[in-house]
Design a protein that fits this description.
Length: about 400
């Protein structure tokens, strides 16, 4: 999987802590003015409304009635690193639950491409890009405890697209280094949804394009179904987060290296303004889901592929397979069937289901093939089983022919 070349952070100092506070405060109040001293020319001042929204949401909560939690039971969900999914029920048993989860915002140096030496100070939830998959059922409540370690540099928060409320909880979860918060929200809409960090101003795309995003799957209480209402079941989940990076380069075209998280802020804004990613990768790095890290399956197994793209449109395609059932928007709507390539709208997560029928290596790619082959948006499924000549057969092996 992804190789971490410096799992630890730079040594904490009072200057770094103060720099993190200034940077985070600027994100909430003045936006892109943070770290302007690293540029030859000052960044334009921005006035994001984050501070006003935070105050308004806090005031609204004071005036609101306490939530009625009677009838709910509590369950802890152990989040796991991608491409895997936490243990869960496909069909809910019992009444609605409060799903307790824990996340820690981690800033770490990660290798994006070993061949070029490209690396990024990734901003993460629980140390992975994408952040871990969260699974619940419609009617459940998700109760997140989120902690920002004391040795972090930046402020972080979380916006759940699956939730109902201003800023998706983003206005209620701002945590500075050394702080923690608890947010509870009700899953009212079934489907797959993205979540991401959104501190305010230019810090929103900065955090998202540094890896701080992930997905929530809200299952119908009676599970997935086809257009006729028949139950659909899967044997496993392959959780794929497509990440676009905009890594700064020097005048010679070499990727720049930075000592600590946030040091690349000014340069990254310049790179992001081009709207041209240097990398589009699956699960954080080139090769994170290929070769030795390939996904595994067997003939006859049904895999639910959950694809998250928090920033750009994408077009997944399973080479040699299909989307037997595809939910591009919501589990409330009947799935599309028999798709060759499906669509992930920027800022969404979606799901596609396929039952493998032949052994071999299947490439799962963004079918903008430039992004798949040159920028890294590719994964592999290695499928075991017996070959079926009725589906495909090499009638004649390659040979020379007479002219």
């Amino acid at each position: 999987m992804t190789k971490f070349i410096n799992p630890g952070l730079t040594q904490t100092s009072r200057r770094n802590v103060l720099r993190g506070s200034v940077l985070a405060g600027a994100a909430a109040v003045t936006g892109a003015g943070a770290l302007a001293n690293q540029r030859r020319s000052p960044l334009p001042r921005m006035q994001p409304p984050a501070a006003r929204f935070i105050e308004a949401e806090a005031q609204a909560q004071v005036q609101a009635e306490p939530a009625d939690l009677s009838g709910y039971s509590r369950v802890k969900q152990e989040l796991v690193a991608p491409p895997f999914a936490p243990e869960h029920e496909q069909v809910a048993t019992g009444g609605p639950k409060i799903i307790e989860i824990y996340m820690e915002t981690t800033e770490k140096l990660m290798v994006v491409d070993e061949d070029t030496g490209a690396s990024v100070w990734a901003l993460t939830y629980n140390g992975s890009v994408p952040g871990p998959l969260i699974i619940c059922h419609e009617g459940d409540m998700v109760e997140l405890t989120m902690r920002n370690p004391v040795d972090s540099v930046m402020e972080h928060n979380i916006d759940f697209h699956a939730s109902t409320g201003a800023l998706g909880g983003g206005g209620l979860t701002h945590v500075f280094p050394g702080e923690e918060t608890v947010l509870r929200w009700k899953a009212t809409k079934p489907g797959c949804f993205t979540y991401h960090c959104a501190p305010g101003g230019a810090m929103i795309p900065y955090h998202v394009t540094h890896g701080m995003n992930g997905a929530v799957m809200v299952l119908p209480r009676d599970g997935l179904k086809d257009v006729e209402g028949n139950p659909l079941r899967y044997d496993s989940i392959a959780y794929i987060g497509e990440q676009d990076y905009y890594l700064p380069k020097d005048e010679f075209g070499d990727f720049l290296q930075y000592e600590a998280a946030g040091d690349d802020y000014a340069d990254s804004l310049d790179a992001m303004r081009t709207l041209t990613p240097t990398h589009c990768v699956f699960n954080g790095a080139v090769g994170a889901l290929t070769g030795e890290n390939a996904l595994q399956a067997k003939v006859g197994e049904t895999v639910l592929m959950i694809h998250n793209q928090a920033n750009r449109d994408s077009r997944p395609h399973l080479i040699g397979g299909h989307g037997n059932y595809v939910w591009e928007t919501s589990f409330s709507d009947p799935p599309l069937t028999g798709l060759e390539t499906w669509f992930v709208r920027g800022g969404t997560a979606m799901a596609a289901m396929y039952t493998f029928e032949q052994p071999g290596v299947y490439a799962y790619v963004n079918h903008n093939l430039i992004e798949a082959t040159l920028l890294g948006a590719a994964a592999h499924f290695v499928v075991e089983g017996n070959w079926d000549n009725a589906l495909m057969e090499q009638v004649v092996a390659p040979r020379t022919f007479e002219t």
